[in-house]
Amino acid sequence: MARIRVIYENGSPERTIEFDPAAAPFQHDGQPGSVLDVLLGHGIHLEHACGGNCACTTCHVIVKQGINSLSEATEQEEDMLDRAPGLTPTSRLGCQAVIEDADADIVIVVPRYTINQVSESR
Amino acid sequence: MERPAYRARVERILEHSADTRSLFLRTVTGRMPFYSPGMFISVKIPLPEELRIRPYTIATSPEDGEPFELIFNLVPNGRGAAWMFERKVGDLLDFTGPFGAFTLERAPDRETVFIAEGTAVAPIRPMLRRALSQPCSHSVHFIYAAAKPERLLYRAEFESLAVTNSRFRFEPLIVQGKELYESLSDEVARRWVHGDGERRRDFFLCGIGSGVLKLRDLLRGAGYERRAIHYERW
Ligand SMILES: Cc1cc2nc3c(=O)[nH]c(=O)nc-3n(C[C@H](O)[C@H](O)[C@H](O)COP(=O)(O)OP(=O)(O)OC[C@H]3O[C@@H](n4cnc5c(N)ncnc54)[C@H](O)[C@@H]3O)c2cc1C
Ligand code: FES
User: Fold this and answer.
1) N or C terminus of chain A with fewer C-beta within 10 Å?
2) What's the pTM?
C-alpha cells in the first residue's frame, strides 16, 4: 500500500490516507493515479479549477517527501508550473503528478495561495 | 481562504448548430471580477452522483461587461457538456474564477499567429480584439480550422474585422479527408518553419487533444522561444 500525508499551509487539520496505486483511477479528473485523483477519490478536497487539465495551477502542491515516487513532469506541466505563485524546486501539479510506486510514502503541502486567477485590477 | 463563488443566470441562448451553443450569463450574486482575454470560469456541475468541475472560457471581451458568453459543444459521453447543453433561460449556474494562464493582456509588439479549431475559438476571440486594440504595423494572423464550414463560429465577425483592419489576416481552413492537426502542422511548417528564418513571432494555440502539443513541439523544435509558444489543450 502507498501512503500520502497532506499538510495544509492555511492551518487546516492534516490528513493521511493509504491506498493501492494499482486501483487507480479513483474518479475521473486529472491523470489517473495522480495526486488529485487519489485525494478526490478518498474524499479529500484539492482545488482543480480546470478540471485536472493542466491549465490553471490551482492544484499546485509542494512535495516534501517521496518526489521520486512520482511520474516525471511533462513539458506541459513545467510550462504551467512556471506560472504558479510560490513555485519551489519540488512543486508539482496535483492533477499531473502520478504516483508510480506501489509503496510510495509521500508528504505534500497544499500552499495557501494557489491562485492563477484574475490578473487585471479594476 | 475560501475562493469567492458566483452565481449567474442564463439570460439568452444562441444555437450555433445542433451540437454547439452559447450561453449568455449575468451574475446575480457577487459581480464578475475583471479578467484577461483568454480566461475561463470554473463551472460547478451538479450531476446526480458527483459535483463535477469543468472549465469554460469566456468568449466575450472584458470590455463588453455582462452578460458574458460561454460557447461549448456536446462531447461523446461527456456528461458535463450535456449538462451545460440542458440549461434553459432563467437557470442558475455556480462558478468560481476567472482563472487561467493562457491569456493575452496587451497588444503584442511583434507578428502574432493565433490558431484554433471549432469552439476553441473561445479564448482567441477576446485575445484578437485585445491584439488589435493598439495601432501598430505588425500583422496578426488567425488560422481557424474545422472539419465542416458550420463549425467555424463567428466567421462573419472575423471576416469583417479583416476588412476594417488591414494588418489582420483571417484564414479559415476547412479540413476534409485528413486529420485536422496534420493539415494544421503542414500549414504551420510551410509558412513559419520552412517559409523563412525569422523566429521573432508569438503563437497562441488552442484546441482539443494532443494535436496542440504536436504544434507546440513543431514550433519550439524549429527554434522559436519557449515562451513565445502559448497554448491551451482542452
Ligand atoms: C482551460 C479549459 C477551457 C475550456 N473551455 C471550454 C469552452 O469554452 N468550451 C467548450 O466546449 N469546452 C471547453 N473546455 C472543455 C470542457 O471543460 C470539458 O472538458 C468538456 O465540456 C467535456 O467535459 P465533460 O465532462 O462533458 O466530458 P469528459 O468526460 O470530461 O470528457 C473529456 C474529453 O472530452 C474532450 N473534450 C474537451 N473539450 C472538448 C470539446 N469542446 N469538443 C470535443 N471534445 C472535447 C477532452 O479532450 C477529453 O478527452 C475547456 C477545457 C479547458 C481545459
Ligand atoms: S487542476 Fe488545473 S492544473 Fe491541475
Assistant:
1) C
2) 0.95
